[in-house]
Amino acid sequence: KRGITRVLTPGTVLEEGMLTARRNNWLAAVVVVPAQGQEPFRWGLASADVSTGEVQVMQRQDSDALHQQLAQLRAAELLCSTTEGHPNWCPDLLPLTPVANTPFSRPEAEAALLRHYKLASLDGLGLPELPLALRALGGLIGYLHDTQPLEESTSVPLDVPTIVQRGDALVLDAQTR
User: Fold this and answer.
1) d(CA 177, CA 166)
2) Model's pTM, two decimal places?
């Protein structure tokens, strides 16, 4: 039987020989809501290292904060549903993979999370309070399921997401680093 068993992208590499030692190989996904009227620029970010199973999510405001977070993360691949070229909130050298909006919609993202973690409700993950982070993680997991079309019983093993709160770490800008 012939068929696509896996699509290899920079963020979905699992083989040790292809990974850099002592460095995470982050696959990240971002959902951005531009500033409108009184509403500020808001964003949700999910990142996963498929080789270790580590997953982090966060939700914040301000495009500069997103730019600094992405520069610090140094993801191997960033998933975004943007239609513009290379947005100003994205560091120049970061590989941007455009994807459809559908996996980042709230219903699709919730369904992907429930299916992947085999849950009846998302309340235990703490994500309903972070709708943009929830959508980013759902889109990321949807992308993993599309690029790694494994059988349902052998999906990519990802840990329960860690929510990174503001103040959990000291953020250093690129010049200070």
Assistant:
1) 19
2) 0.82
